[in-house]
Amino acid sequence: MRRHRGFTLIELIVVMAIVALLAGIAAPRYFASVDRAKVNALRSSLAVMRDALDKYAADKGRYPDSLEQLVQDRYLRQVPEDPLTGSTQSWITLPPPDNADLVGQVGDVRSGAAGRAPDGSLYAEW
């Protein structure tokens, strides 16, 4: 009589337990690194847009009326996507400071994302 070779149920359960243990260890680190990447991308996007706003104001003598105007005048290639909301429309624009002699609608930009950063600050206050 010929016997079929294969894995026993116990061997399969042990392998599945090892895979589940490894996934349980790796998953939290993966999601934490994804969150850190989004935070870093947000900081970078804000820095680039604020730099473009400053250069626009220095070149034109006024602030732009919208973020799209920065794109039209080629200070940005495109309005970046807010990495936390996944939208280019969620940016909150702020008027120029009162002590600025320059006119225009957009003097600063902030994220429209709700929630807190890992350091405890609100994303909308960056």
Textual characterization of the structure:
The chain has a two-stranded antiparallel sheet. The protein contains two helices and two strands. The chain is mainly α and 126 residues long. The relative contact order is 0.13. The chain has helices at 9-60, 67-72, and strands at residues 92-94, 108-110. 46% of the residues lie in helices and 5% in strands. It is elongated.
Write the topology of this structure.
Elements: H1 9-60, H2 67-72, E1 92-94, E2 108-110
Helical/strand content category: mainly alpha
Helix/strand order? HHEE
What's the number of extended β-strand segments?
Answer: 2
Q: Rough shape?
A: elongated
Please, how many domains? 1
Organism: Pelomonas cellulosilytica
InterPro entries: Bac_GSPG_pilin, N_methyl_site, Pilin-like, T2SS_protein-GspG_C
Keywords: Membrane, Methylation, Transmembrane, Transmembrane helix
Transmembrane segments: 12-31
Keywords for this structure?
126 residues; mainly alpha; two-stranded antiparallel ribbon
Question: How do you describe this structure in short?
Answer:
This protein has 126 residues and is mostly helical.
